[in-house]
Amino acid sequence: MPAFAPADAPSLPLHVLSPDDLPDWLGGPGGAWAAWLTASGFEAGLGDVRLLPGPKGLAGAVIGTGTAKERARGRFGLAKAVAALRTGDWHLSGTLTEAAAKEAVLGWLLASYRFDAYRGTPAAEPPRLKLPEGLDGETLLAMAAGEYLTRDLINTPANDMGPEALQEAFFALADAYGASASAIVGDDLLAQNFPMIHAVGRASDRAPRLLEMRWGSEGPQLTLVGKGVCFDTGGLDLKPSAGMLLMKKDMGGAATVMGLALMIMRLALPLRLRVLVPAVENSVSGSAMRPRDILRSRKGLTVEVNNTDAEGRLILADALAYASEEPEATIISMATLTGAARVAVGPDLAPFFTDDAEMAAAIAAGAATGFDPVWRLPLWDAYEPMIEPGIADLDNAPSGGFAGAITAALFLRRFVDSPRYAHFDIYGHVPADLPARPKGGAGQGARALLYALPQMLDL
C-alpha cells in the first residue's frame, strides 16, 4: 500500500527547479553543483533528474518542472524522480503552488506502484516522499490505494482472476471497510431475473454472478455499476488472437468502481454506497448465446444479439435495471465497452455520457482537480433508431460502424430510470510506460468522480 516517509525521518532534498529558476539557483544555493549540472546538460526540462554528489555520498537531487508547454502536454512529470532516485526518503525543496505540489505527491505515490506477484525476485522498494505541509495526505493516500487495487485486479491474468476470484476480491474489500456483500451465482441468476447476465456467462465453466456491496447508512445514495467480464473471447463471434491479448482487462470497469469504492469508504464520505458488479466470462461452448438470439432483460425489454462480442452492455443492462429499482440513487456505470471510444479519444482520455448538465460540470471540475482527464460525449437522441432492430426492442450491435460509443451509451440509458446517471467508457490500460502510469492496468475517471461527488450529491 502507498505510504509517506515519516515526518521525523532523515531525508534528502529534491530541489524542484523551473528553467527560469535555474540560473539563480546555480548562482546561489546550488553553486557547488553548477559545473556538474552544466556539464551534464541539465536545463530543468520536465522530469529531468540529476543526482547531486556530496562529501559523504549523495547530497540530494534536482528535478526540472519544464516549461508551461511541456507541463500542458503531460501529467505527473515530477514522478520520473521515483525511478531515478530508486530508494531512500526524500522531501521536496523549492517553490511549488499547492496544485503543483499535489500533482507531484500524487504522481510520486502512483509511480511507486509495483506488480510483482508473478516475478521470482520482487522489485526494489521505491523511494518514499515526505508529505509537504498544507496538503491533504489522507485523500492522496486514498486515491493511490484505490488505484493500486484497480491496477492489481486488471493486471492479474484471467486464469487467476475469473468471476469467483473477482468475487473474493470484492468480498475482501467489503470486509476491510465494514460493508455488506452478497452474490447471486449461476442458475440463481435466472431464478432472480437477471437473464442477460446469465446468457453471457453460461458458456463458461466458471459460473456468472452478480456481486452487490452496500456501505453507509446516511446521506444520498450513490450506486456504482462496473462491467466485470473477466475474459472476453468474443463468444461465437470469436475475436482474432491479437484481439484477445488485452482481454484480461475487460473487467476494468469493475476494477475501477471497486477502486473508487475503496476511496469513498476509506475517506468515510457521508453517503450511502451501493456497488454492483456483473461478473462473467464470455466463452465459447455448446451453451453459448448465438448471433440473432433474442434475449429478454430484467427490465422486460428484448434484445437481439447481433454480435456476441458486444456482451458488456448486456450484463450492464440487467445490473442497471436492478440499480434503478431504488429510484433515489445517483447511478454511475463504468466499462471497457467500445473500441469506438478509443478511436474517438485515444487511451489517455475517458469519455463519459450524461444528460445531467450539473453532473457533467462537476465531473469536468473533478477531473481537473484529480489530474484525471475525461471528455464528455453526447447522448445523441437522433441516433436512437440505430439501436432498434425492428424484430426486438433493442439491438446490441448496430450495423454500419458509426458512433459506436454513443450507441452503446444510448443502449445502456434505456435501462436506467434515474434522471441522475453517467456512463464512462474507459480503456483500463496504459499501452506504454508514462510518468506515474506504468504499462498495464489503469483506472480512469475514479479520481474525477471522487472530487465531483460533493457537488453532484450536495455532500
Automatic annotation (TrEMBL):
Domain of life: Bacteria
Cytosol aminopeptidase domain sequence ranges: 307-314
A single MF term (Gene Ontology): manganese ion binding
GO CC annotations on file: cytoplasm
Pfam families on file: Peptidase_M17, Peptidase_M17_N_1
Keyword set, alphabetical order: Aminopeptidase, Hydrolase, Manganese, Protease
BP term (GO), one: proteolysis
InterPro entries in UniProt: Leucine_aapep/pepB (IPR011356), Macro_dom-like (IPR043472), Peptidase_M17_C (IPR000819), Peptidase_M17_N_1 (IPR048816)
Similarity comment text for this entry: Belongs to the peptidase M17 family.
Identification of the protein by name: Leucyl aminopeptidase family protein
